[in-house]
Design brief:
GO terms for molecular function: pyruvate dehydrogenase (acetyl-transferring) activity. This is Pyruvate dehydrogenase E1 component subunit alpha. The protein is an alpha/beta fold. The chain has one domain: 3-Layer(aba) Sandwich (Rossmann fold). Helices cover 44% and strands 9% of the residues. It contains twelve helices and seven strands. The strands form two sheets. It has a five-stranded parallel sheet, with helices on both faces. The protein is globular. The N and C termini lie far apart (60 Å). The chain binds thiamine diphosphate and magnesium ion. Magnesium ion (MG) binds next to strand 4.
Length: 338
Amino acid sequence: MATRKAAKKPNASKDDLLQYYEDMLLIRRFEEKAGQLYGMGLIGGFCHLYIGQEAVVVGLEAAAKEGDSRVTSYRDHGHMLACGMDPNGVMAELTGREGGYSRGKGGSMHMFSEEKKFYGGHGIVAAQVPIGAGLAFANKYRGEDTVSFAYFGDGAANQGQVYETYNMAALWDLPVIFVIENNQYAMGTSVQRSTHSPSYWERGAAFGIAGEEVDGMDVLAVKEAGEKAVAHCRAGKGPYILEVKTYRYRGHSMSDPAKYRTREEVQKMREERDPIEAVKSILLTGSHATEDELKDIDKKIKAVVNESAKFAQESPEPALEELWTDIYADELPQEASA
Ligand SMILES: Cc1ncc(C[n+]2csc(CCOP(=O)(O)OP(=O)(O)O)c2C)c(N)n1
Ligand SMILES: [Mg+2]
């Protein structure tokens, strides 16, 4: 894989490549640290790591512009970091502390940022898909040329509400990009065992929605496909489906016995298809960076991640009174009925 990538002419500048390398590495190191803190008992509940899938969200964020919105499932830490949310706030939320994005009351699966237009973090499989269409509806209603990215998995792609959403999104030409992160497993169930028609993007044809399959281990391919999808949506042509073929190296969550696949299968993906190694290879073979420069980036990222872990452990637990806050909205948009 690395050789094939090196031979391909990259459709990105040196600065872009370095940025993608750094962004993917931040997610990788952050997730490794989250895994450690979980093992130490500092993170409770469920925790779904994104290791292996980094190129998907980094490639698509590279195609996004300010004002675009995004929504995803419970495997969400990478999405938050990629859209610019603060690692300290994300890690503190994982440890259930006051300094977290949901003041320690949401945890891994329930974080939001109005500023970055990140709308969660959803534990119910596929529930975020209609929300993604709703965000696109809002963008269109306000007359903005912004788009919404609705990320979901291969397992979620078999859920009924996805198709209700496709129908409405196509009917109303909503600027939503449905991103199917096909990591080949839904918990312990492989794609082969869960569907007779594993080409998920092609299902859009039934609704008149265009789409394509993308190599999700290649950040440049993801960015290119993302740009095409974004241009389609911004031109008012309605929704678009990107089925991004990817792979998660870790278990479904931290409590996965991993009996449904072999160690060799995981090892092969790590060795031959790793998205971070692929960019590293382009940077090195193209003489865009030296080993030492890349090591410095790694050092810088590790410092950011260590700082987030420190912040997360030093931030206090939420006060008891917090139990009664953030339940009902304080302000409601009343303009329409006023
Ligand atoms: C409606 C609903 N059904 C079942 C579950 C349990 N569940 C949690 S994650 C998951 C698998 C989803 O897999 P996929 O959509 O491929 O996403 P991935 O975990 O691979 O990112 C299931 C069945 C749930 N959370 N919600
Ligand atoms: Mg999956």
